[in-house]
């Protein structure tokens, strides 16, 4: 009998002891308390190091168009964007446009050095333009580097003197500065590229931070660049870890393992609410270039009828949506254009449920209609899209619409849109740059790429005429008038139903200071330990 | 020796079969890799001509059979291709991530075997006692708990509250503990129950009675005779389990921010990155085949009678 074993107490005790030891070794190894100012991944301690986290790797590597995102402040563009969306000087300190708009002359900032010690001059800029030509279009998780779309009709890049150069175009380019902003004019050391135009090592930019170490999908280690021409970075070392799961990022913040989060979807609003219950933490929010929409399939009934699109738009209480599901950080709007564009026209949400119901009756009669609302999976991680879809499902019942929610992964979502296999779709769109011409063309032109690939089925002759007109309009005031009219038409015709302009939201521990959200990123160079 | 050579040779058509199925499934799934490659940033909306150019560049306009044969030809020469999205070598990426996945799954195996078998032995030794009942309830609970829930619970307790372990990341032994326990939990429970059942089954066999009659100590009988004969089902479970977790566990890798093979494959699937999917399928297929062969080999070591063509009782 097995019970006979129990008599052998010594043996049994030995077995139990061995098990306890094993469990103790495996489960309870004496780990030191993780600290945010230590280097958890490398194991080496740097008391001055600040650890942050992002949902994705912000330094995709040497094959990427930029190696790092601009929000790591490793490289700088010729032209940047100010907080009001206007082009602002960075490595180019000034510029002039010729009378005919076909030539732009840029003066470079003096005494700027790359991280490898090379000097910024016109030759370095020309080497970068040669690289743009060589690699374009080059995909990136941030923005595609494409010289044809950023510098349409670029004929030549001419050195004028050591610190100035000229861009020569086939056609007038009055809004060139807008399309040159940030990701369209990155400048690296001319010695930083291999024969294919990829990076031959770590990126050598001119930014306040140097990328000194990078473990793909784990972390990027930044060090303050002592030779920076402007105000030096306040923190000596910053480690940006990759933590894809939002709950784990929150836990890492709470445990003190990281001091803050950054990048798109850094902290979903619901988690921010939970975090703010603890007085150790703070949230910073500002405008974002992302807008949220409800795309209707305008190629088939019932949303080929603009009246039903208007009914849906009037039935959605955007203020409530933003307040309940996004904690009030975004801005509700019916404007197609994102509010970070300098051409943005303020339009208040239009919530009129009773009129919406009348419009629905006009279109559908007494019949109920079953429709498909598709939701992309990426929206479920970053945004409360599931709750949002369920809210629409509930609200649209009153418009005689029975909503069937379908959650699709990114690729299947795009295919459903392009094949028109949907009725409504939850979607986001980023603003490529301050000049909305590309965005208007993509969505509102009868031949626009987004209009086609999302099956919006939109055609308005006046819009096509305005878009043609804007191409040859040099005066910024006249362009503004055209853009105003386009915004008004879009809000009335609703080729897509705008919901709200998103907010750029970050969270951080009060042990650090100077860390705030910006339209695209954070004030990373100002971040420092609170004394 | 011939037996193993035959097993390895038999693996080749198996590998081709699974790679073909994976290729067909990828191609049949909705979505266009060219569109995915052009819309990585979520801002660009490519025109049809851009999509057509990208499809031509990626070789996606060829008939599916031609695409598959091209891939197979290169794979036979050790080239698993280049990722459509990252433009990096798939084999290089898999090899870079392999040590990460190996370390987590290796530790998970140690935990699963190191806890499952001894606890199973203890349960058998103390059959129908309070210890046995408690351990059986614990095993049932462990096997029923979803991995992601256990992961979140452990992070809340060991990282947020106790500050003993880092929430996530990779690099030190401390980073491996929680992911390994989460990966091991279910298998540890299965091994506990299986060990207990297997030991109880062999305990009344004639050779055990003989050993007792010869005056051998009980612990010796248990470890040398009973456990060895009870090992066959255990090794089968351990082999298939290790093969499975070597393929990467997506949930554990995402929650604990481990840059392993599972996350790589999941990104490939979402982006319709065919070379990545194919490379991953071939790699995991190889792992499965290798572990099956190892399991077969271990049968021979444990049961010498099998070497002479005997059968298990």
Supply database-style keywords:
heterodimer, A: about 525 residues, 6-stranded mixed sheet, 5-stranded mixed sheet, 23 strands, B: about 325 residues, mainly alpha, MetI-like fold, flat
How would you summarize this macromolecular structure in one to three sentences?
Chain A is an alpha+beta fold and 531 residues long. Chain A has helices spanning 3-6, 9-27, 122-135, 147-150, 176-180, 246-255, 269-275, 306-315, 318-326, 353-364, 377-382, 385-395, 410-419, 437-444, 449-453, 461-471, 476-493, and strands at residues 50-54, 76-77, 79-81, 87-89, 92-97, 103-108, 154-161, 164-169, 186-187, 209-215, 219-224, 237-242, 260-261, 281-296, 331-332, 369-376, 401-408, 424-430, 497-509, 512-513, 517-518, 521-522, 528-529.
Describe the structure.
The complex is a heterodimer of chains A (531) and B (313). Chain A is α+β, with helices and mostly antiparallel strands and 531 residues long. Chain A is built from 17 helices and 23 strands. Chain A has helices at residues 3-6, 9-27, 122-135, 147-150, 176-180, 246-255, 269-275, 306-315, 318-326, 353-364, 377-382, 385-395, 410-419, 437-444, 449-453, 461-471, 476-493; strands at 50-54, 76-77, 79-81, 87-89, 92-97, 103-108, 154-161, 164-169, 186-187, 209-215, 219-224, 237-242, 260-261, 281-296, 331-332, 369-376, 401-408, 424-430, 497-509, 512-513, 517-518, 521-522, 528-529. In chain A, the strands form seven sheets. A six-stranded mixed beta sheet of chain A has the order 15-19-14-18-16-17. Chain A is globular, with a radius of gyration of 27 Å. Chain B is mainly alpha-helical and 313 residues long. Chain B has a domain at 101-262 and 288-308: MetI-like (MetI-like fold). Chain B contains 14 helices and no strands. In chain B, α7 (147-161) crosses α8 and α12 (261-271) runs antiparallel to α13 (274-302). The chains are: A alpha+beta (531), B mainly alpha (313). At the A-B interface, α1, α2, α6, α13 and β18 of A face α2, α5, α7, α8 and α10 of B.
């Amino acid at each position: 009998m097995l019970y006979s074993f129990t008599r052998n107490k010594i043996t049994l005790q030995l077995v139990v002891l061995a098990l306890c030891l094993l469990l103790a070794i495996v489960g309870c190894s004496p780990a030191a308390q993780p600290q945010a100012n230590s280097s958890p991944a490398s194991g080496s301690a740097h008391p001055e190091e600040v650890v942050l986290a992002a949902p994705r790797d912000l330094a995709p590597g040497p094959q990427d168009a930029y190696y790092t995102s601009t929000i790591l402040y490793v490289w700088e563009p010729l032209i940047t964007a100010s907080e009001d969306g206007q082009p602002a000087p960075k490595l180019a300190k000034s510029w002039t446009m010729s009378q005919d708009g076909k030539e732009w002359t840029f003066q470079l900032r003096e005494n700027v050095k790359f991280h490898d010690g090379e000097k910024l001059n016109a030759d370095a800029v020309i080497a970068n333009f040669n690289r743009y030509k060589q690699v374009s279009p080059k995909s990136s998780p941030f923005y595609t580097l494409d010289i044809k779309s950023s510098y349409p009709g670029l004929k030549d890049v001419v050195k004028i003197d050591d610190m100035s150069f000229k861009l020569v175009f086939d056609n007038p380019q009055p809004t060139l500065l807008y399309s040159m902003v940030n990701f369209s004019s990155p400048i690296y050391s001319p010695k930083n590229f291999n024969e294919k135009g990829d990076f031959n090592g770590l990126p050598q930019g001119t930014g306040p931070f140097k990328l000194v170490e990078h473990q793909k999908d784990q972390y990027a280690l930044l060090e303050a660049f002592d030779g920076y021409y402007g105000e030096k970075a306040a923190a000596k070392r910053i480690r940006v870890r990759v933590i894809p799961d939002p709950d784990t990022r929150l836990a890492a913040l709470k445990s003190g393992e990281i001091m803050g989060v950054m990048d798109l979807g850094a902290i979903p609003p619901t988690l921010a609410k939970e975090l703010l219950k603890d007085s150790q933490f703070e949230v910073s929010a500002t405008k974002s270039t992302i807008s949220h929409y409800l795309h209707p399939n305008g190629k088939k009934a019932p949303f080929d009828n603009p009246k039903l699109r208007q009914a849906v738009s009037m039935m959605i209480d955007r203020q409530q949506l933003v307040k309940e599901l996004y904690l009030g950080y975004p801005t509700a709007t019916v404007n197609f254009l994102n509010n970070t564009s300098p051409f943005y026209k303020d339009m208040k949400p239009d919530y009129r449920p009773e009129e919406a119901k009348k419009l629905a009756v006009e279109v559908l009669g007494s019949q109920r209609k079953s429709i498909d609302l598709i939701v992309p999976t990426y929206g479920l991680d970053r945004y409360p899209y599931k709750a949002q879809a369920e809210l629409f499902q509930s609200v649209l019942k009153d418009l005689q619409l029975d909503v069937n929610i379908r959650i699709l992964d990114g690729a299947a979502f795009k295919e459903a849109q392009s094949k028109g296999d949907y009725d409504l779709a939850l979607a986001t769109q980023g603003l490529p740059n301050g000049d909305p011409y590309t965005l208007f063309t993509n969505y509102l032109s009868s031949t626009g790429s987004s209009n086609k690939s999302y099956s919006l089925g939109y055609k308005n002759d006046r819009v096509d005429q305005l878009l043609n007109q804007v191409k040859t309009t040099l005066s910024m005031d006249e362009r503004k008038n055209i853009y105003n009219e386009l915004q008004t038409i879009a809000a009335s015709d609703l080729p897509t139903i705008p919901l709200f302009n998103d907010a750029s939201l970050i969270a951080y521990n009060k042990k650090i200071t100077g860390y705030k959200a910006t339209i695209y990123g954070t004030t990373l160079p100002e971040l420092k330990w609170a004394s | 020796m011939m037996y193993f050579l035959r097993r390895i040779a038999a693996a080749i058509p198996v590998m081709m079969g699974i790679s073909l199925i994976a290729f067909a499934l990828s191609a049949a799934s909705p979505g266009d890799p060219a569109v995915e490659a052009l819309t990585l940033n979520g801002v660009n909306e490519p025109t049809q001509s851009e999509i057509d150019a990208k499809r031509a560049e990626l070789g996606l306009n060829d008939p599916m059979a031609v695409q598959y044969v091209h891939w197979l030809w290169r794979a036979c020469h050790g080239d698993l291709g280049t990722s459509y999205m990252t433009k990096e070598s798939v084999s290089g990426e898999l090899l870079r991530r392999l040590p990460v996945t190996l370390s987590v799954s290796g530790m998970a195996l140690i935990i699963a075997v190191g806890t499952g078998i001894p606890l199973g032995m203890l349960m058998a030794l103390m059959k129908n006692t309070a210890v046995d009942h408690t351990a059986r309830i614990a095993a049932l609970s462990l096997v029923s708990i979803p991995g992601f829930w256990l992961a979140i619970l452990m992070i809340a307790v060991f990282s947020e509250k106790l500050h003993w372990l880092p929430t996530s990341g990779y690099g030190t032994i401390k980073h491996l503990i929680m992911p390994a326990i989460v990966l091991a939990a279910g298998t540890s429970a299965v091994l506990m129950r299986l060990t207990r059942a297997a030991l109880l089954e062999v305990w009344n066999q004639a050779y055990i009675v003989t050993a007792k009659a010869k005056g051998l100590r009980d612990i010796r009988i248990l470890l040398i005779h009973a456990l060895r004969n009870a090992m066959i089902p255990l090794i089968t479970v351990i082999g298939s389990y290790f093969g499975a977790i070597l393929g990467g566990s997506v949930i554990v890798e995402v929650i604990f921010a481990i840059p392993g093979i599972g996350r790589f494959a999941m990104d490939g699937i979402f982006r319709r990155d065919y070379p990545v999917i194919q490379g991953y399928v071939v790699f995991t297929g190889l792992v499965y085949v290798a572990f099956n062969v190892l399991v077969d080999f271990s049968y021979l070591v444990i049961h010498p009678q099998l070497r002479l063509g005997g059968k298990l009782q």
